Structure formats: C-alpha cells, structure tokens
C-alpha cells in the first residue's frame, strides 16, 4: 500500500521539486483534501507550527496543526498527512507520504526540533512559510469547455480548471496537489506553477474535447458532476 501510494504521488509531482495495494477507486478529486484527523490529548502541541529541515529538503516546509493535520509544502505543491501523539509510547505517529511515515520521538529545544525513529533522525528549525505567487502571463486565455473537474480511470492525475484562470492538479487518492494558473492556445493548455517560492515552472499539454470526453496528456477524462 505504502509503495503504491508513494508511486502515485511521484507521478503527480514529477514536474515539481518532489522526485516523489490501492484500487483505482472513484473519489471526488478535490473535496476530500485535508480532512481533519482526530487527535489524542497529550503533548501534541509541542510540534505544532511550521518547520524546515535541511536533512530532507531546504525548500520544503513542514506544517503541523493543532487538529492533527500535517503538510509538506514547497512552491505551490502540497502533500497532505496527519500526526498523532501516542501517550502510551510517548511517540508521535507521523504520516506525510514520501516524507515522514513512522513513529518518532521528538526533542524540542527552542526553535530546533529533532525527530528520531528506529530508522532515521531529522533536525528541524522553526520557520515561516513564505507567500508564494505564481509567475504567469498577465493575460490568461481560458477555454469554457475545460471549466470543471476532470478524472480519468487510467491517469493518476485529476484536474480542476476554474473560470478565473486558476487550476489544481491532484492525485486520484487526494494526497497531493499542485496549485496552478493556466492559459489555452491552439489546442494546448499551459500550466504555470512554482517549484519553490522563487523558482517558477510550466507544463504544456495538448488537449481536445469530443462527446464530453477530454483527451489530455494522452489520457481520456470525464467531467465529475
């Protein structure tokens, strides 16, 4: 299960910073993102906040919220996870796919935190997540036929195109997203995103629409109602 999940995230995020046994179940490509996880009472608040870890990636920010949600963020990409404090073992159970997925002992000294498991040790420092603005052309040309949510039975990526020129790519299991802007021209859609807060990127895909089937990036998509 873990290997397949990581493979899915790798596919959606190969064009960003992350070189990142589930069935192809049909899910809403956007609605379930970031669902709140129940959290045990204990010392969980010790790690709540935003951290950065050079041991993992100096451009990736790790965010732990007091409701048990956890995220890895870089540029306009996000991987969603959770964490919980286990009172009996005095360990944090952290699951941010492709980044942290184990039980960790947390040692916190001021603005520095060390997470140690039986397999690894990471040192984090308190940080502030910077504002990230997508670098894209001033005038974005949208296509009315693209507006909406699209999902494929074969592709691990789902797409949402909005009227205002913004878009979201997510994996079919809703564990990772990339926020984008997009522009259409000559049956091609160009997606603009940020690899980091400073480095921009883009991805051009050919598309066509026939009989309510969207052919995009070599896959056939249907609109999610």
Task: Please supply descriptive tags for the structure shown above.
single chain, 16-stranded antiparallel sheet, disordered N terminus, 16 strands, Lipocalin, 2 domains, 225 residues, mainly beta, 5% helix, 48% strand
Can you put this structure into words, describing what you see?
This protein folds into 2 domains: 2-126, Lipocalin (Beta Barrel), CATH 2.40.128.370; 144-223, Lipocalin. The protein is elongated and about 55 Å long. The chain is built from 1 helix and 16 strands. It has a 16-stranded antiparallel beta sheet that branches. The two termini are 29 Å apart. With 225 residues, it is mainly β. The longest helix has 12 residues, at 2-13. Strand 14 (200-210) and strand 15 form a beta hairpin. It has one helix at 2-13, and strands spanning 49-53, 57-64, 69-74, 77-86, 91-96, 100-109, 112-116, 121-126, 148-151, 157-161, 166-171, 176-185, 188-194, 200-210, 213-216, 219-223.
């Amino acid at each position: 299960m873990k290997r397949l999940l990581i493979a899915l995230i790798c596919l959606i995020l190969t064009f960003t910073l992350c070189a990142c046994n589930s069935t192809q179940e049909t899910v809403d490509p956007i609605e379930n993102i970031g669902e709140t996880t129940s959290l045990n009472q204990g010392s969980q608040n010790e790690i709540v906040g935003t951290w950065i870890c050079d041991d993992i990636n100096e451009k990736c920010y790790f965010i732990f919220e007091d409701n048990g949600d956890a995220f890895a963020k870089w540029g306009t990409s996000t991987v969603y996870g959770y964490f919980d404090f286990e009172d009996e073992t005095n360990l944090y159970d952290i699951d941010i796919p492709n980044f942290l997925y184990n039980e960790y002992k947390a040692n916190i000294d001021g603005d520095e935190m060390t997470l140690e498991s039986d397999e690894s040790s990471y040192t984090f420092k308190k940080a502030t997540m910077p504002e990230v603005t997508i670098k894209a052309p001033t005038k974005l040309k949208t296509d009315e036929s693209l507006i909406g949510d699209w999902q494929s039975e074969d592709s691990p990526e789902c797409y949402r195109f909005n009227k205002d020129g913004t878009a979201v790519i997510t994996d079919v299991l809703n564990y990772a997203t990339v926020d984008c802007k997009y522009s259409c021209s000559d049956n091609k859609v160009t997606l603009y995103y940020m690899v980091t807060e400073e480095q921009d990127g883009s991805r051009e895909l050919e598309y066509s629409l026939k009989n309510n089937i969207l052919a995009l990036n070599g896959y056939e998509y249907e609109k999610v109602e």
